[in-house]
Amino acid sequence: xxxxxxxxxxxxxxxxxxxxxxxxxxxxxxxxxxxxxxxxxxxxxxxxxxxxxxxxxxxxxxxxxxxxxxxxxxxxxxxxxxxxxxxxxxxxxxxxxxxxxxxxxxxxxxxxxxxxxxxxxxxxxxxxxxxxxxxxxxxxxxxxxxxxxxxxxxxxxxxxxxxxxxxxxxxxxxxxxxxxxxxxxxxxxxxxxxxxxxx
Length: 199
Prior knowledge:
74% of the residues lie in helices and 0% in strands. The protein has 199 residues and is mostly helical. 18% of the residues are buried. Residues 194-199 have low confidence and may be disordered.
């Protein structure tokens, strides 16, 4: 009789230990995923800031230069595409992230063409509003890079943790899926070809 009671007590203690470990590990994974998801919102906020600034930049450029319509149209269309591509941070897949990144890259490319083409207009380069907007855009691009790196750090730590033993058991039971990370664009490892020949 006493052996049966001891066995039951041991089982109860083991159940409490295992249950406590499950709860602590689950809460840790929820926190890690939540931090990465919150950081994703910071990434989106930085992209939104760039989108808002681009509208002001386009208006300034239109007002100050007899500007090529094609370049402005490209920027406006790329901005519209970039802002229409959204992702649910709680269901962040590699395919969704690639689509989002492609739209943002298109906007970056169009914006770069706009800023290079502006070199033809000395009166625009001297315009204080334009210079301030250009400076704001440069700062925003830096913020975007910082926020993406922070997201990759947090999501990367989470991805590692859900694969570690024994945490991977709980991650599997509680459906904690891997989060997609930002990757460089194809060809980004090559130095850009800068050409200032406007003829």
